[in-house]
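Long-time lurker, first post. I've been practising inverse folding by hand and with some scripts of my own, and I keep getting stuck on stretches where the structure tokens seem ambiguous. Below is the full token string for one chain I'm working on. Before anyone asks, I'm not after the true native sequence, just a reasonable design that respects the backbone. If someone could post their per-position residues I'd love to compare against what I wrote down in my notebook.
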């Protein structure tokens, strides 16, 4: 499985995804909901992301005592 991981600015990631900057958040949220992308905003308009070639289901594990 080839996974693409990196950090890009808002302008660079909007070009990479193929959307205008004003629609970037909506597109990133949609890709994350579908399971193809994991991302987080870093300060000064940069994004850290992991792009998966296939849909990945992330499950959250909660430990209790």
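-- Answer (accepted) --
I ran through it position by position. Result:
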């Amino acid at each position: 499985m080839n996974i693409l991981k990196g950090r890009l600015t808002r302008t660079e990631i909007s070009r990479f995804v193929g959307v205008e900057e004003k629609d970037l958040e909506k597109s990133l949220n949609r890709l994350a909901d579908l399971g193809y992308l994991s991302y987080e905003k870093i300060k000064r308009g940069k994004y850290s992301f992991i792009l998966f070639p296939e849909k990945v289901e992330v499950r959250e594990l909660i430990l209790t005592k």
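A couple of notes from the structure itself: The chain has one domain: 4-51. The mean pLDDT is 87. Happy to go over any region you disagree with.
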